[in-house]
Structure formats: structure tokens, C-alpha cells
Amino acid sequence: MHHRFRGLAVGAVALLTVSTALPAAAAEPPGRQEHPARGGLSAVVRYTEYGIPHIRAESYADLGFGTGWAQAADQVCVLADGFVTVRGERSRFFGPAGRTDGSLSSAGDNLSSDLYFRGVRQAGTVEKLLAEPAPRGPSRQAKDLMRGYAAGYNTWLRQHRTTDPACKGAPWVRPVTTLDVAARFYALSVIGGQGGAVDDITAAQPPAARPGGGGRAPDARALIRAVRERAADADMGSNAVAFAGGTTANGRGLLLGNPHYPWQGGRRFWQVQQTIPGELDVAGAALLGSPTVSIGYNSRVAWSHTVSTGVPYNLTQLTLDPADPTVYLVDGRPERMTRRTVTVAVKDGPPVTRTQWWTRYGPVVAADDGSLPLPWTTTTAFALNDPNAANLRFADTSLGFGKARDTAGVLASLGRHQGMPWVNTVAADSSGHTLFTQSQVLPRITDDLAARCSTDLGRATYPAAGLAVLDGSRGTCALGRDADAVQPGIFGPARMPTLKDAPYAENSNDSAWLANADRPLTGYERIFGTIGTARSPRTRGAIDAVAAMAERGSLTVRDLQRQQFANRVTVGELAAEDAARACAALPGGVARNKDGAQVDVSAACPVLAAWDRTAGTGSRGALLFDRFWRRIGALVPNAQRWKVPFSAADPAHTPHTLNTEAPGFTTALADAVTELRAAGIELDSPLGKHQFVVRDGRRLPIPGGTEALGVWNKVEPVWDPAHGGYTEVTMGSSHIQAVGWDGSGCPVARTLLTYSQSSNPNSPHSSDQTRLFSRERWVTPRFCEKDILSSPALKVVHVHGR
């Protein structure tokens, strides 16, 4: 679809770029080489306040071109690093023992990362998915976006010198191909499955190849613990709530999205508005390397995502041929594993060649120090099934959201493309509808199948952690196919836990059960998550807050903003008073710390009592309670922490009443006091004096709190008492959006990108929104033409590639 542009500002800055033949982006096997994307593409990039680009184009390829160009301008080093990763070339440039930033896999070092991603490239996995017809494969529009993105990125590289010190003059900053862009999508899709088990895949070797290999049995408790820790350490979370028209001031919906993502590296968000006149007009945030808006809004609907509790993979236990541990039996017939021999170029050394082992069920996983503690013995091995390894539909699903006119359109995109790999979706629209759905790609593990086909190991892991371990020796234990599923072996849309038009729909990374406490969702399979189990402190605080908001009614976008920065510490409301009272009752005000030394903790008691139970930057007592609660978590098991246990009849308010008689309570208090005094920090010092980041040589106080405290505005900083307390933030609140509608055709939106738009410290947009976040201020984004053109910061750039 082609359109003429209208109403663009006069006197624009024109950047005319001419492409010439560019070198190949990566060394490929003979016959498999792809040249970097180029072509006669163009777009108009209009920048407004805080460096937010509004990209206007005539086609999807042009839109991808403008997006790739503008992302490179802000994030070239981070993007280039990620492209090195998905090409499997980290060892070549950075050495095999170096580490990735963890954004595209869990690989423990560069060599492991390269062995996996070179293997994916060598097998032609992504090319095969690109060739699948839609909807099982990506649409022409999605492929045009990827092609255009690569061309735009390459055009920026040709026309600019990199000023970011992270990669200035680096040889690994090179042109990319459409395949590189698609491979990055693939990496994000499998990060919950194969990508989270890279070390286990690349290290798995038959027992004869390992000294002493072959005798160890799998440990169910260790595997359950590993699966839980893997989910807890995923470095991603989120809150989102949608309010229906019956709760709002004008009868239209409201949405507050607060994704918790890394503040550094390749899983950052980047703000953008994308427009093809008459076809698409959407604003929000894209994940780096993506040409589509991942979380956002348009003139009628807004959506956000939260990381789900669904386990996006399962294991198959293989019965091996006693004569050959690389042969497994299915219905008594032998099948030989597929050898995938991968060679990786290494900096300052000879190439490294390793073998991976693949089966009809997926790759064999086994590693002594991997994320899944599983053995490969002479009789048994385990294969990882990751259905997202056949999913390159993320872009189309997001594109469908951007085109949707209501929550029904959001649900329709999920149903058609089925491309969300590991997230829930929460949405609201201008007609007052709400939506929560756990529509994600999951292996089709029904409770019945698990009951029939689980091995002894699976009978322990499935109920405890949602991880199915199926008997691979029986063909009847295959996953099967739902009639409405776009690929075999996954659940179709009809099976997804979904809640429509509830007064509020909320999720804070617990299961779908209490998306609305008055309308609990039940009846879904265990692999989706639990029902009737204790909720996290963050979920409990969120339900309490949003239910009260819905009950109060007459809500506006301003109420969403207040919720985001209420900084309420759920655990503080539950435990601080009890802790202060028990502290005051200690004989002589003395407790023993972990070293057995007596500590005068009497000064801590009034601080805990007077604390306002928030994690605002000016809150006195928040830091003391935070350090105390972290010690409680390490010393007192959750089952002993509360006097009143969890009750499924009152899940939002139980457990409660701190058990101050539990062994470890007084030790935790003494440890916290000792720690703060040793760092020279007053017990009642304001949180923001010691929870901060440094930008442009200045300390910026940061509001919010850690996961264990149950704070909606979650931040996870690094404790460094030698340098003042918490320094830097590793992950937490990222692209925040509060969205409503007023009937004008222009959404009423407030946004905030907490870590700012650019990673380049030389950019004026590397810390401007971080300063806003520090002060709990918001951006009023410009969506409609009249607002964009009236921006005092407007800068218009015409970008062409020929």
C-alpha cells in the first residue's frame, strides 16, 4: 500500500544515503551465503522530546528500514553485540572464555553460546521457519519488516561513525542480513526453552566420552529446585492491569503496563511510533533488534505483557540401546541420534569443534553444571522439547496488536498467529473492554497425558514444578495436536486461560488463577501454572490495590500514575509493625548477629515503627527493612516466617503475622544493623541517598524495591556499601505506560523509559528519562499529527537507501 506524505514540517534535515555492495555479514557455509540487505527504501523519522522517533513510511519494508536506521542511531553497540551472538561469532571477536550479556541465551561463556547459535545457523533452522507459509510461518509483511530493518541498520552504519565507546572502531560492528534479524527473533522465542539450556545442549556427550560417565541417576529434588530457580532467575517479570469502563470516569478502558526487564544489554526496550498511513499507527516500545512494537497502544486499544508461569518446554526420557548410548528405542525400534558437529572460530587460537546430539524429541541435555541437572548414562538420556523452536510468529502477533481496534482484535491476533513464547497479555480498549489471557506457545502436556506417560522422575517434577518428563519409548506418549493449533504439539487458543471484561484484570507474574480475585480462572492444565496456591507479595499487593481502585471507581490515567509510584511495600505492611514490637521487647535491646557477636539494635526499633511502609526515595527506614528482609529470606524458611498460614479461601491476605519467635529473626535484625553501620549508613537514612544510579557523574536517587518486598515499582540494584549502598540497577521497571482515551481520537497516554532511549553515554538521550524516573515524572508522548508537528523539539530526518 502506497501513500503520499502530507503535513510534514518544512525545512527538514535530509539524510540522503546511497548503498553500494556490502560485504557479507557472517561467514556462512558455501552455498548458504546471504548478502546484507539493501535497496531503494525510504522513511521519514520525526523526533520529538526525549529522542522518541515517529517513523512514517509507505510500506512495511520502508517502515522496517526507518526502524532499523533509528534503532542503530540509539543502540548500535548493543545491537551489533547481539548480531555477533546469533551468528555464533563471539569467540572469534571476544575470546571463548568471555561472557555474553545474557540477553539472548543463558550460555555460561562465549564458546557455549557460539556452539549453539552456529549449530542453529548450520542446520538452517531459521531459514526453514522463514519459508513456512503464514500463519505457521511469518507473513510477507513481517518478512518485509525484517528485510527493511536490516537495510536501515546497514544504511546507518555506512553513513555514520560510531561515537559510543562500547564499540567505537570495533571490527565486529558490521552489516547484517535479513537472516540475522530473523535469528534474533528466534533467539528471543526460545530463550525460555533451548536458550535457557544452552550449556546443557552443547556439553551433552555420551557416557563413554566422559570420565566416569554412565552411573548417576537423576535427582528429582535437584531438578525441581533447578526449574524453580531458572524461572526465578529469568531476569524478567512485570505487572499489568486493565480497568473496564464501569470503573472509569468516562466509561472507557484504562491500561497500566509495568514490565520488569534488564536495564542493560540486548533485552532493553526502545520507544517508537510506527505509521503507514491508512494501514498502521501504533506507539510503544520495541525490544532491541525487533522491527515491531512489543508493548504499546494505538487510538483504540492498549496492551502490555507479563512473564507467565507456563513452563515452555518439557523433557523426554530416552531408553537407550544397551550396546550404543547414541541409539534410543521407540516402541522397541531403534532410532539413531543425529550428530550435529559444529566448528567455532576462536580468537588467538585454533577452531574448536564439538558434537551435539539431537533426537526426534529435540536436543539431548546433560551437563554437570548446567541449568538442568540430568545425567546421560548407558541406559538413559533426556531430550528437551521446545515448541518455540518452531515459532517465528512473534512479529506477526505484535503487528496484529498494533492493527487491532479493540481487545477482541488483540485476542484474534493471538488466536491466528499464536506467537507469544513466554508471556501473558493484558489489554484494555476505548470501548471499556478488558482482557487477560495466557495465550502462549506451550508443549501440549495435558494432565491426562502426564498421568499416562510420566516417568518416575516426571511424576515428581510435573505436580511440583510444571515440568513434564515423558516416556520416549512409547509412541502413544506423543504430544498430539489441537485442531485450532497452528503447529503440532502445542495447545490451541481454546485451551488458553482467558478472562474477558472483568472490572479489572491484573497479573504480576503469578499464574492466571487470580487475574481477578472475584472471578478466579480454573480448569487449565498444570503446565500453565498453579491453582489455589500462595501468591507472591507483589501479586498480593497488586490485587489489594487494583481491587480497591476498581471498587472506588471514576478512575483516570492519573490514578494509574499514582499506582505506579505508590511504592507500597507489601511485606512492610505485613511485617514491619511486628518486627518493631519484637525489636523493642529484646532484653537490653541486644541481639546476636551471624558471627555470634552481640549487637545493640535498640536504635532500629523506632525506625521500623515510624517507617511509612513505602520504598520512595525519601522514605526513612525502607533501607533498614530491605536489608533486614533479605536476611530473613536467607535465614527463615517461608513456612516458618508467618504465624497465620496460607489459605486458598483468602489468598490475597494470607499468610500474615510475622513469626518473630522463629529462629533467625533476631539474627536477621542484628545482621542488618551490623551491615548498615559497617557501611557508615544511618539506620534512618533516606532510601534515595543509598539507592541510586550514576549518570553523567551525578547520583540519581531511584525509587522502588526488590521482588521479595512486593513492590509494584520493582527495581533490582547492586549492593555496594563501599560506594554508598545500592549502585546501578540490573533490572526492574522499564517501559512504563499508562493509557486511556477521551473520545478525541488521540489516546491519553503517559510513558516512561526508565533507563532512557540510548546506551551511548555521549547521547543526550542516555539519561534524560532516567532523571524523570528518579523524580517520579512522566513523558506525555505525542501520537496524533497535530501533536507531533507542534513539538518544540521536532527534528525531521528523511532517510533513503538506493
Largest beta sheet: what is the strand line-up? 1-32-2-3-6-7-8-9-17-18-20
Query: How many extended strands?
Result: 32
Determine the structural class based on helices, strands and strand pairing.
Answer: alpha+beta
Oligomer: single chain
Strand residue percentage: 15-25%
Q: Please summarize the sheet with the most strands.
A: 11 strands, mixed
Distance between the termini: 20 Å
Based on CA atoms alone, the radius of gyration comes out at 26 Å
Helix fraction bin = 25-40%
* Number of contiguous helices: 21
Q: Tell me, what's the shape?
A: globular
Mean pLDDT: 94
Low-confidence stretches: 1-37
Helix-strand blueprint:
Blueprint: E1 13-16, E2 42-48, E3 52-56, H1 60-87, H2 90-94, H3 110-122, H4 125-131, H5 140-159, H6 178-189, H7 198-203, H8 220-232, E4 237-243, E5 254-262, E6 269-276, E7 280-287, E8 295-297, E9 301-307, E10 314-321, E11 324-330, E12 333-336, E13 338-346, E14 349-359, E15 362-363, E16 380-385, H9 394-403, H10 407-417, E17 423-429, E18 434-437, H11 447-453, H12 456-465, E19 469-471, E20 498-500, E21 504-507, H13 537-552, H14 557-564, H15 570-584, E22 590-592, E23 598-600, H16 604-610, H17 622-635, H18 638-641, E24 642-644, E25 656-658, H19 665-678, E26 691-695, E27 698-701, E28 715-720, E29 725-733, E30 735-740, E31 748-753, H20 768-774, H21 785-789, E32 795-800
Parallel strand pairs: 1-32, 3-6, 10-19, 26-29
Antiparallel strand pairs: 2-3, 2-32, 4-5, 4-21, 5-29, 5-30, 6-7, 7-8, 8-9, 9-17, 10-11, 10-16, 11-12, 13-14, 14-15, 17-18, 18-20, 22-23, 24-25, 26-27, 28-29, 30-31
